[in-house]
Structures are given as C-alpha cells and as structure tokens.
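Hi there,

I know you've been waiting on this one. I reran it after we fixed the sequence typo, so this is the corrected version. Both the input and the resulting structure follow.
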Amino acid sequence: MSQPKSEFDTPWKKVLDIYFEDFVAYCWPEQHSKIDWKKGYKSLDKELSKISRNAPVTNRIVDKLVEVYLKNGDEAYVLIHIEVQGQSDVDFEKRMFIYRLRLRDLHDKPIASLAVLIDADQNWRPGVYREELWGSSMEMKFPIIKLIDYKSRVKELEASTNPFSSVILAQLATLEKQSPEAKLTSKINLIKWLYTRNWKREDIMTLLTFMDWVFALPKQLELKCKEIIEGLEEELHVDYVTSFERMGIEKGEGTMLLCFLEGKFKNVPDNYLQKINKADAETLVKWGKRVLNSQSLDEVFND
C-alpha cells in the first residue's frame, strides 16, 4: 500500500492544490471571508521558478503560490512556505523575505506570506525578518501556523467535517516518537477514522495517499497493515485499498513514461501531460512501447 517517498514535498503540494479553500477555512479562518471563492483559485507553482533562482534553497521547505480573488475585485497572491522536515531553519525568515520581494517585483499585486511549521519545537516561532544598517532598515512580518498547536484540539479535528482536518491529524501523529509497531497502530486507527467520514470517494483516496506517505513503515508491517485494512473494507463493503494500489501502479507507469518522453523529446507539453494523468496502466504501457520508434510525440499518443 505504500507509495514511493522520494518526492518529499509532493503530497503537501497535492493536498494544498485540492484543499486550498478547506486549508484556509480551517487554519486561517479570519482570512477566508476576504476571498471570493466563487471565482476559484489558481496554483502558480511554475511562477516560483522565476523567483527562486539564486535564492537560499533547502529541500526541507515546500513553497506554494496561489492566485486568489479578493471580494473587492482585486487579484492577490498567497505565498505559502511549509517547513516539512520538522527542524528549525535559521534562514527561514530570509527565504520568505527574498521570495516575497522577488514576487512583488515581478507582479504588481498584493501578496500574503504565510508560514506553516511542522516541527515539535514549541519555542521556534519565526515571524519577522529585519535588516538595518546606518539608520536604514527593512522589516517583513508574516503569520505562522504551527501544527503542534493543534495537539490540544484533537477531538475537534476528529469531529470536523473539513477534509483538511485529516491532514493535520496525520501530520500530528508523525511528531510523536513511535516504534514501527506503534506507527502501524496509529496508521490503522487514522484510516479507520477516515472510513467513518461521509466524504466523497475521491477525497478518501486523496487523503489515503497522504496518510500512506507520512506513515512510512517497514515492508512486513505494511503487509500487515494491508491485511487489517482489507478486513475492515470487507466488513464495510468498500474497496479503497484495492483502488489505491491500482492508482499507485498507474502513477508508477506514468512516471516511467514521462521519463522516457523527456529523455527523447526534452519538453512534454501540457496537453500530453493531461493525457498521461488520465490514462490507465494498460494505455501507459502501450505508449511507453512506442517511444523508441516514434519520431514525434504525436506518433506516441496517436490512437
């Protein structure tokens, strides 16, 4: 049931793409009412590549850039920095300052910077970046969301109808120092709880992916977890794990095909990426076999 963990930041980016409004509603409620959600929102992660060059970079941090519409009609950016490895970072404030400055220079729009901290240090609470020399100074302030602060709100999280509550619960569990066997118990309990939620199937699948990622277990315990969950699913007459595994196979085939395509054709346009994301495993394998003898992307995908 376990998914590859090589892309450490991918699950957080995915849940924020899907549940950005839910994230703001639960974790930043005072700002939720200021956004015109009827107009939707847009993830602009590709824009981050324009401002990240030569910036202090650490693979511990996930960066998300989201374009929203305010109720007064203005467009605005929400720039989110997530410290994902649970360690304090002395350059964190500087990184936030540089990214905000570069984004403001590139796009003349209001920017809200937010830090989400996934660590167990109650005392690490960055919120200000300052520079001063000879009477000249600059200062940037930003709010933080510290997940450890939700430890006292577990019952509230468990009772919530907001899907993002499950993300917080899963991440909180990883802050506990647990043996592999204890992790297995935590994972099973969370999945059992998830199955009691009256949420859409696609929500359950997405949140299962996130939980599976944060609860990396030894292979033997993963097999035990699978057996227990399969028994639960049989009792509840659902098949999330089976679908989840099938989704993992298709994701693996898609990743391999994309590597082949980029190796031969360099750039893969968005329309082909969408085809790959929607295809089943059998179709992905068929396209993969065509790559070697095809002279163009059209030949690979021509059905």
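Quick highlight: The mean pLDDT is 82.

Best,
R. S.
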